[in-house]
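Q: I'm teaching a short session on how sequence maps to structure, and I want students to see two examples side by side rather than one. Could you give me a first protein with its sequence written out and its structure tokens following it? Keep the formatting plain so it prints cleanly on a handout.
A: Of course. Example one:
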Amino acid sequence: MGETEREARIDLAAAYRMACHHGLNEGVCNHFSLMLPGSDDRFLLISYGTHWSEVRASTLLVVDMDGRIVEGEGEVEETAVCLHGPLHRARPDLRCLMHTHQPQVLALAMIEDGKLEPASQNALRFSRRVAYDRDYGGVALAESEGERVARAMDGKDILFMGNHGVMVGGADVAKTYDDLYYLERAAMVQILAMSTGRPLKPIPPEMEAEAVRQLSRDNRHRYAVEHFGAIKRILDRTEPDYRE
């Protein structure tokens, strides 16, 4: 294993571990994937039955686009392949994919015409980046569902999956996890505000555009790298075995 692959494995294991701490996991379900460095047809994936709190860099599987295990021991969950394989094929720009049923985002995806509103600073991080799939497609047990989800993303990097969950994609683990985390925070405060029964106060379009400019892609990526570095330092102190 080369150093680049080892670092990729460490990053993905760290994301799984911290997602557990942030309450984004659900049993042994859902999955994060990361294209293997230097490859366009193989990706890293958790072995089915592994709890996110016990993921280690060395236990991640290498699988091909059809779900065959190329390296590692364990089982590939069918839904993981049916979602991630077609998405990685259709969106090579999204090297990392994170699919969860995280509660706050799912709650918005359960509401009729529910969406993330431009009513908080965190929500503006996602301005014009979110697609909405209003049609629940059932449990993803066929590649056709992954292909449908890829089409529903419509070139965006985040998809609210109706009555199901969320799919977040990015160029690397740091940026993708940063988006996953802040998406849940933005959904949480929106739901909290909605629970008062008072109408949301949207941010004016001209100020939204200015904030989006301030939250430029370069600035977001720098922040994501720093945020993820802090996450790994926390894990290094508390759960250093994630690197093994």
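Q: Perfect. Now a second example for contrast.
A: Example two:
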Amino acid sequence: MTTVLISAGDVSGDHHAAGLVRVLRARHRDWRVLGLAGREMRAAGVERVADQADLAVGGLLEIAGSLGRLLHAWRAMDDAIERAQPDLVVLVDSGGFNIPLARRVRRRSRARVLYYVAPQIWAWRRGRIRKLARRVDRMALIFPFEADVYAGTGLRVDFVGHPLVDELAELARRLDGPAARKQLGLPAAGRVVTLLPGSRRNEIDCQLPVQLETARQLHAMEPEVQFVLAVADSIEAEQVRRHLAAAALPAALRLHVHSGRAREAMLAADVSLAKPGTVTTELMLLDRPMVVMGRAHPLTAALLRRFLRVPWLAMPNLIAGQAIVPERMQQEARPDVLAKALYDLFAGPVRDAQLAALAQARGRLGPGGAAESVARIAEEMLGRD
């Protein structure tokens, strides 16, 4: 029996991996698939070795409080490599966890290693590129600019396109902005801003207070605007409640909190305030304007500034090769600055220019079919048709 071990360390990785698993299981019902899995991978039929929620933390210094959970997930995956002896290991994003895991695979099994959704080592810590090339047999890249990063390493890379292209095109066909507003209990008329603070616990602590204060200041500028706070499934409600209580927003400010409804919240919005990451690609594919902000522990931010090798963090900017969406990081992510940037995107030439640039960048993500392409690569690596 063919055995595939998959490691997806965050919510977006769990989502992309689940799409791949559905294709593989439809074509090879006798294959065993197990791994580091979240809710979507388990729903797709993956045997859970470790829980993706244990890795729901990001940053450098921020992981200290989650070391116990991280070690538990590591030991579980290490044991699975030894016991299951997989034929293929598929690593999905999460380079901090998966690059060391690739080394363990090399040492403890004969499995081929496929990396789907490359870690963003092109942004910083470029010294890991050759290390990755030694530990991985093949890479399936989702951004067109990534291929040049691995030139000269001998690593075989394939640009498969972004896995969200098909999915979000289908969503946009069946759900438009007015329908999304109706589902979320929002009025059909009036301006709506969606707050997207992230899917990791430390991101909520860093981003949400700033986003809530931004909402307060934007409300003062435009009292009729309504806000949607999109909370990821990986975040506990109590953590969000604490921040809402601390913010003490005015009673007249209408804030709708929804868990697990991020895409409906994006479609419902005139403009969104988002942290860097996959969510910025989702907004671009859904043709929704955005402002991108980020806060991290000061020491983490200082280290990132020292090693960062790209001029932007928002994916639309990296794909376009220019700043097409506003980015405000650390001290620049001030609520007054963010509120003004959001206000400017409600209507007029600033909004029109961003939408046109997003449409052009969107075309660079490929025609779709990423999961099917990666499934074919997996079959080639295993010598299967």
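Q: What should students look for in example two?
A: Point them to this: The longest strand covers residues 3-8. Also worth mentioning: The first helix runs from residue 11 to 27.
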